[in-house]
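Q: What structure does this chain adopt?
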Amino acid sequence: MQLREDREHETEFVTNSYWESVEAMSSFAGKDPRRIHHLPRDPEFLIEVPESVQVLDIRTQHRTNLLSIARKSL
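A:
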């Protein structure tokens, strides 16, 4: 899921992805799932280059999943 907030001089994008476990995140993202994998031209377009991904637990009565959040302002 991607969220977008348009402001007067910039736009912020928040990208959310859902994972079964830290192991599932690591199998996709590498050893440290909180590490952001920047594209070569990110510094050209981003106001600030994020240093990490926020990882949150989503807890329900039946299971726990992980939510990964990356914020980028253009």
